[in-house]
Amino acid sequence: GAGVSQSPRYKVAKRGQDVALRCDPISGHVSLFWYQQALGQGPEFLTYFQNEAQLDKSGLPSDRFFAERPEGSVSTLKIQRTQQEDSAVYLCASSLALAGSSGNTIYFGEGSWLTVV
Amino acid sequence: QKEVEQNSGPLSVPEGAIASLNCTYSDRGSQSFFWYRQYSGKSPELIMSIYSNGDKEDGRFTAQLNKASQYVSLLIRDSQPSDSATYLCAVRSGTYKYIFGTGTRLKVLA
Question: B105: nearest CA in chain A?
Answer without folding.
Answer: A40
